[in-house]
Amino acid sequence: MAQASVETRPPELPLSGRKPRAVFQGRKGGIIDSRFDRRLAKVLEHAAHIFCEKGYEGASMRDLSRAAGMSLAGLDHYFESKEELLYLIQKHTFQTIIERVQERLKGAKTPEERVRIFIENHLEYFLANKEAMKVLTHEDDTLKNGRGAEIRAIKREYYRICLDLLEELRREKGLPFSGRLAVLGLFGMINWIYTWHNPRVDADAHALAQELGDLFLRGVLNPGNPRRKSAKAGV
Predict the structure, then answer these.
(1) What CATH number matches the domain at 85-222, 1.10.10.10, 1.10.357.10, 3.40.1190.20, 3.40.50.1970?
(2) Is 26 helix (H, G, I), strand (E, B) or coil?
């Protein structure tokens, strides 16, 4: 994911030392107006880069302010701590990917098509945001108390969307597979892509989603005969 120069100040961010009303109040509830979404997303992108590079514990507010092109006082004015930035990275990421997949699923006609859309949406977003994906994976349990509970609830919503899609597919095909195991198996296939994907030799998100979708669905839709396999194994 391309990064702007660490000294580049986001021109849209109001850095006068006063919080604009109805736009953003970081310390008082994190109220975000749609006009501020893009500007906030850019700051979070820079913060994800620093957390990815240094780790959450190793990153300082000064590191984060430099990456965002803001003064330390300016960053502190909008964000009370680096924990708030980590919270906002996770919240923004999961809300964005959920909104995108829900919109794309509206045009799907079959359960299998919907599962493929889910896979492609996941891969497309995280291939474009590998650093955010790494932060989400490595800092999964960092947030505590109310913020951690809120992120876990959003993640459960994402899990539930996938589970519902696979349960729908299972019912349509009359197959006995476990929806829970299928969901966890699918996430096991697609969540670690940031660790191995090389754009110089690996396919893009669309082609990769097709290939991984084929691998996953062939397994789910062709479970074989467990009794016959057990008999051959002498069980």
Answers:
(1) 1.10.357.10
(2) coil
Rounded to an integer, what is the distance from CA 227 to the centroid of its chain?
39
pTM reported for the whole predicted model? 0.78
**176, 177, 223 from 226: Cα distances, Å:** 11, 12, 8
Strand, coil or helix: 8: coil
pLDDT given at position 55:
93
User: CA 61 to CA 143: how far, in whole Å?
Assistant: 17
The CATH architecture to which 24-80 belongs is Orthogonal Bundle (1.10)
pLDDT score recorded for residue 233: 44
Query: Could you tell me which of 8, 89, 97 has the C-alpha nearest to residue 49?
Result: 89
Q: Which helix (H) or strand (E) holds 24?
A: strand 24-25
Mean pLDDT by 10 residues, the chain (235 residues): 34 37 39 60 92 94 93 90 94 95 95 97 94 90 91 96 97 92 95 92 95 94 60 44
